[in-house]
Amino acid sequence: MQKLSTRHLLGIKDLTPDDIELIMATAREFKEVINRPIKKVPSLRDVTIANVFFENSTRTRLSFELAEKRLSADTLNFSASGSSVKKGETLLDTVNNILAMKVDMIVMRHASPGAPHFLSKHIKANIVNAGDGTHEHPTQALLDSFSMREKLGGDLTGKRIAIIGDILHSRVALSNILALKKQGAEVTLCGPSTLIPRYITDLGVKVSHDVKQTLAWCDVANVLRIQLERQQIKYFPSLREYSLYFGINKKMLDDLNKEIVVMHPGPINRGVELSSDAADSHHSIILDQVENGVAVRMAVLYLLAGQN
């Protein structure tokens, strides 16, 4: 059996192109499994996984929980809001107490960038980063790549991918950029100049501030949510004005002289970054991303468990 080059999935930065190919191939097999009448396999029957979420999550948490159940793993679900963290317990003490219950793997979301990396230096269990602050969200990038490959016929080499929206506050954007560049894709970022990080072009991407021009260029438009909860100051005058200049509607898509794919990691601010008619159009593969998320997370958990 092929193995990943790392014991943890902390970020796309740590994966090799071969690791990404292995995860994609394994996810394809698991997608066949979850579309069968009997959707469970006994692959992780003796493995215990703790989902440790210090930040709110719906899609990612449910997706990991379902992936674990499909693999027959035993699961623990931890939420910081009702835990001893509120009494002042440290991150390391919290996780060590969970590990004392003989947990093999931690799926972790935390508001602080680098929190999973810190933990990986102090505990023996495998760690999957389910999002750390505004840093990375590796499984989202992997499921996005898987969805693009599925729609575009396999390889992403030379494909033109646009990431549109709030790049500055998005962990999805950074992970996607790293994953796409490792697969040979061309990447353009589009959004207001206030929401594009300085020096981002050092990652080998282009920057545009014209959404219509960007849509005409790309094969795939991965549209990101405006993350108002992470913004301490105003980066643009109003949501209405953002929508006017950077929002995407179905007419804009229909006016292109080609078919493009529209994606969104969710949750969507309908009427802001995407209109309802665009989000629900034939261009959109947003619900496919949700389905593929389970298969990709099954692949990641299975391959990391194999490291032990």
Features:
single chain; 308 residues; alpha/beta; Rossmann fold; 2 domains; five-stranded parallel beta sheet; four-stranded parallel beta sheet; 11 helices; 38% helix; globular
According to DSSP, the number of beta strands is 9
Give the C-alpha Rg. 19 Å
Could you give me the name of the CATH homologous superfamily of the largest domain?
Aspartate/ornithine carbamoyltransferase
- Tell me the CATH topology of the largest domain: Rossmann fold
| Range of strand content | 5-15%
Output the strand order for the largest sheet. Answer: 7-6-5-8-9
Mean pLDDT: 90
How is the biggest beta sheet arranged?
Answer: 5 strands, parallel
The arrangement of helices and strands along the chain is HEHEHEHEHEHEEHEHHEHH
Description:
With 308 residues, this protein is an alpha/beta fold. The protein has two domains: 12-136 and 290-305, Rossmann fold; 138-285, 3-Layer(aba) Sandwich (Rossmann fold), CATH 3.40.50. The chain is built from eleven helices and nine strands. The strands form two sheets. The chain has a five-stranded parallel β-sheet, with helices on both faces. It is globular, with a radius of gyration of 19 Å. Residues 228-233 have low confidence and may be disordered.
Draw up the topology in text:
Layout: H1 17-34, E1 48-53, H2 59-70, E2 74-79, H3 91-99, E3 105-110, H4 115-120, E4 126-132, H5 138-152, E5 160-164, H6 171-182, E6 186-190, E7 206-208, H7 211-217, E8 220-223, H8 239-246, H9 250-254, E9 261-263, H10 276-279, H11 286-305
Parallel strand pairs: 1-2, 1-3, 3-4, 5-6, 5-8, 6-7, 8-9
